[in-house]
Amino acid sequence: MRRVRETLDRALAGLVLVLLSPVMAAVGLAIRLSMGQPVLFWQKRVGIGDREFAVCKFRTMNEARDAAGELLPDKQRLTGLGRFLRRMSLDELPQLWNVLQGEMSLVGPRPLPGQYLPRYTARQRRRHEVKPGITGWAQIHGRNALDWEQKLEMDVWYVEHRSLGLDLRILAATVWTVLRQEGISCSGDATMLEFLGALGKRRPV
After folding, report:
1. 192: phi then psi, degrees, rounded to nearest 5
2. C-alpha angle 135-95-39 in degrees, rounded to nearest 5
3. Using CA atoms, how far apart are residues 177 and 137, in angstroms rounded to an integer?
4. What secondary structure does DSSP assign to 189-200, as a single string?
5. pLDDT in tens, 101-146
6. How many structural domains does the chain have?
7. Quick count: other Cβ atoms within 10 Å of Cβ 74?
8. 178 is in which domain, residue-wise?
9. What pTM value is reported for the model?
């Protein structure tokens, strides 16, 4: 079953890359003209078996800094184009390359930063029993509008109920979720708040 899933992941990812290559080229050109280089950026995230890898996305924020040379908060650096790309989930399209490389799946828990690892409960850490995905159970049930406890519990639920049928259901629902543009941000913030686990509070990333 694992090999079948990986074969399907790579075949579908390759097909989508070909079909959407004109869209990705247009997005890349728009980013280059509005924000300059780089067009893509990579972030270290944790995948299956707690292994770290570099996830690829289209850039959505500029490099604006304050008088001290520090980057401004995400909300101030997110551009109009970046908001559009996030609303339509177009910023996630380069992750199809991660799928082709075997680091991600089309469906699975979203990959999160490595500093979160010691903050998970034993149950929450089960999210790393499968490959991370471009979309997932949490993404079609509220996306970033969910709090961390809800989101992580949905990730574990997916791990416990994973099947090809469920994956197809999630992929179909993802299209509808993107078109409705639901759950893009959390409580008015540009990005999801940092997960602090047992520390019992959250702050903007």
Report:
1. -65, 140
2. 130
3. 11
4. BSSPPPP-GGG-
5. 999 999 999 999 999 999 999 999 999 999 999 999 999 988 777 8
6. 1
7. 15
8. 2-199
9. 0.85
Q: What are phi and psi of 197, to 5 degrees?
A: 60, -125
pLDDT digits (tens, 9 = 90+) for 139-166: 998 877 788 999 999 999 999 999 999 9
Which two tokens mark 31? Answer: 């980013």
Report DSSP letters for 168-187, one per residue.
Answer: HHHHHHHHHHHHHT-S-SBT
d(CA 61, CA 8) in angstroms, rounded, equals 33
> SS in 3 state form for 80-136?
HHHHHHHHCCHHHCCHHHHHHCCCCEEECCCCECHHHHHHCCCCHHHHHHCCCEEEC
Q: What is the pLDDT of residue 187?
A: 41
Point out which residues pair with 61 in neighbouring strands: 78
Is the C-alpha dihedral spanning 66, 58, 55, 108 positive or negative? positive
Asked, for residue 205, whether it belongs to a domain, the answer is no
The answer to whether 134 and 94 are in contact (CB under 8 A) is no
Minimal CA–CA distance to 127: which of 151, 94, 145, 92?
Answer: 151
Would residue 204 count as lying in a domain? no
Residue whose C-alpha is closest to residue 159's, from 126, 182, 181, 191: 126
Question: Tokens 């694992």 appear where?
Answer: 2
Distance CA 121, CA 78 (A): 32
| Alpha-helical runs (H) found in 36-133 | 74-77, 80-87, 95-100
Please report where in the chains the tokens 């008015």 appear, as a residue: 188
